[in-house]
């Protein structure tokens, strides 16, 4: 199969464009490997990075000078502009000038839901958002390596949950240890992470950030960890009983675990996402997807939701996560799998037991 | 003085527009009080929030349905669109339809460096980025309350540094305790934070994320913490000697502390930012600003940099942060102050001692 740069250019050609201009940070990471900082919101020093991929030419990454060092080993041509400093700040103006020169009158296939209006004014462009989203679903070998590395971060976090839960500790205290374990795995901060950490019973919610609510005997703790590492996301979920599990919790856990196994057994090339969803969801009524692709975003193609038409292909990576909730208890379990020519490989290594 | 909504509308009128359309998340927070989630990057479920402020009409906040509950108490009219779900996702399409109806042919004063091209296509707009940036510099009383609350988070983090530093601990281990202390102050995750945590000597860098480098006797630890709380940022910096401080460290610390005091003494209405910078920087050569405004971003007007023309006004809030670096040692100290009619009030309460 064509690699992702070839697929992106094919998408551009189908749309009558001469180049791809990636504007969504996730698409920039996908095409260049550059991990854009996002966790503090928009930067006063820099515009979000952009990537230009022309037919026949080298990929070009547009970043502030501050990011040049981190970007040198990516194999892209770098175009930089002044970043952090004590003079006047005009990152958007800098990028506009650079971009006009680089595009040089070509029609670009871009993401106008991410490209700012001020950069689009003099640009001839077509909307390639949907095509690029589909092209991102199948992962190249180097991307699989990055996802595996991100999954190891989630594994480390999930391991830490089991080591540190006990009655009396708050969700926030557990979260602090979980994040520290993920940061130890990475050797640096894990600032870009989506995490649910909620304990039952008595809660309506099956997701949400940690609070100062304390764990107690008989509670179920749902920990859903999606960390990003080197631009690629993992995802994971466990449900742990604090102390002895109730009979109803054991029963719910067995059902959900069975559904996750059913999902993994069913994954193979050609299976339609909506059919996989129906198989996993049968008779249950969890109010969320049965799974979703992961890559440079935490939710992308293939979406495992009712009626979804995407057919699985080798190289697609999904987090599968059936759940069961009711009467103040809840169970959700999630592992990451990659579609192989024969079926699937499980990338996650974390313990799913109750 | 006119409140921020009146100032924003004045800016729009000066530019010939009938309404303000805030597109930068920071400007949306400023006009509505809504704290947009940013730390995980773009959401698959929602566009970043937008705010429309028409002449004479109520403020309107455009968010996904998931955010409606958090936004109900803000005193804005809410316009929502479908968010998280298991059906087709089209947040940008939803927002485009909503926005067209709301704007209803008016010319809007907006931020085209933040507004996506796809939303600007059928919009009559003028660029108000610079005017809105200036209007944000003076804080209303409710904003000062939020900044004070954010400063308490930074204070808690700085207190934790002093309590947990000791030889043998790594920067990352200290960081985990610091963040846990900030999260205890907030009662929830502090996911939007800019933090430097670096120890010397031997390091060229005076900023950067924590690593697995271990603290040792004689090291200096620079901890720069800028957490966001309820949409508003604080900032803070301390420099702590691990064990007995060297003579050179004590000397550098005394110089920097003197410069911070000089800065605070000099702050009053009418002082020009560039003059304040010159006063603080005199004879030192730190490669960064002497200070900067904070609010719904972590670096905004007034910027305390060489030659900057902004004259201070009551209600402006600044983080002042002189530094001194050399020979593998570095000291930086930072407190937040608000300009008052007579001079300034210090909002920070953290210990500045070495």
What does this structure look like?
2 copies of one chain form a homodimer. In chain A, strands 4-3-2-1-5-6 form a 6-stranded mixed sheet, with helices on both faces. Chain A has helices at residues 4-14, 25-32, 68-71, 91-103, 117-120, 129-135, 141-164, 171-186, 247-266, 273-281, and strands at 19-22, 50-54, 60-64, 77-81, 107-110, 124-127, 193-200, 220-229, 232-233, 237-241, 291-293, 300-304, 317-320, 323-326, 329-332, 335-339, 344-346. Chain A is globular, with a radius of gyration of 22 Å. By secondary structure, chain A is α+β, with helices and mostly antiparallel strands. The longest helix of chain A has 24 residues, at 141-164.
Main features:
homodimer, 354 residues, alpha+beta, six-stranded mixed beta sheet, 10 helices, 33% helix, globular
Short précis:
The structure is a homodimer of 354-residue chains. Chain A has 354 residues and is α+β, with helices and mostly antiparallel strands.
Structure classification of chain A? alpha+beta
What is the total tally of β strands of chain A? Answer: 17
Average predicted confidence as pLDDT of chain A: 95
DSSP helix count of chain A?
A: 10
Biggest interface between protein chains, with counts per chain? Answer: A-B, 57 and 57 residues
Strand content of chain A: 15-25%
């Amino acid at each position: 199969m064509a690699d992702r740069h070839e697929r992106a250019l094919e998408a551009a050609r189908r749309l009558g464009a001469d180049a791809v201009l990636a504007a969504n940070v996730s698409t920039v990471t996908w095409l260049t490997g550059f991990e854009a900082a996002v966790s503090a919101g928009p930067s006063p020093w820099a515009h979000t990075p952009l990537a230009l991929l022309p037919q026949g030419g080298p990929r070009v990454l547009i970043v502030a000078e501050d990011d040049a060092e981190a970007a040198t080993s990516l194999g892209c041509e770098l175009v930089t502009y002044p970043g952090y400093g004590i003079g006047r700040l005009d990152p958007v103006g800098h990028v506009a000038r650079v971009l006009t020169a680089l595009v040089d009158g070509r029609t670009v296939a871009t993401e106008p839901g991410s490209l700012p209006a001020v950069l689009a004014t003099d640009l001839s462009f077509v909307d390639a958002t949907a095509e690029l989203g589909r092209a991102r679903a199948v992962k190249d070998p180097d991307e699989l390596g990055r996802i595996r590395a991100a999954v190891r971060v989630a594994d480390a976090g999930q391991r830490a949950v089991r080591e540190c839960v006990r009655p009396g500790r708050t969700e926030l205290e557990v979260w602090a240890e979980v994040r520290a374990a993920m940061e130890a795995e990475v050797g640096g901060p894990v600032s870009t992470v989506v995490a649910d950490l909620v304990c039952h019973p008595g809660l309506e919610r099956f997701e949400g950030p940690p609070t100062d609510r304390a764990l107690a005997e008989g509670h179920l703790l749902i920990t859903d960890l999606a960390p990003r590492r080197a631009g690629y996301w993992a995802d994971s979920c466990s449900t742990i009983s604090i102390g002895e599990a109730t009979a109803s919790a054991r029963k719910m856990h067995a059902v959900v675990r069975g559904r996750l196994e059913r999902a993994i057994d069913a994954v193979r090339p050609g299976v339609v996402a909506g059919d996989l969803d129906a198989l996993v969801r049968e008779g249950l009524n969890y109010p969320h997807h049965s799974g979703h692709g992961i890559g440079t975003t935490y939710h992308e193609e293939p979406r495992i939701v009712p009626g979804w038409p995407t057919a699985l292909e080798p190289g697609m990576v999904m987090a599968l996560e059936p759940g069961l909730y009711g009467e103040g208890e809840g169970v959700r379990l999630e592992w990451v799998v990659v579609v192989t020519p024969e079926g699937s490989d499980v990338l996650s290594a974390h313990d799913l037991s109750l």
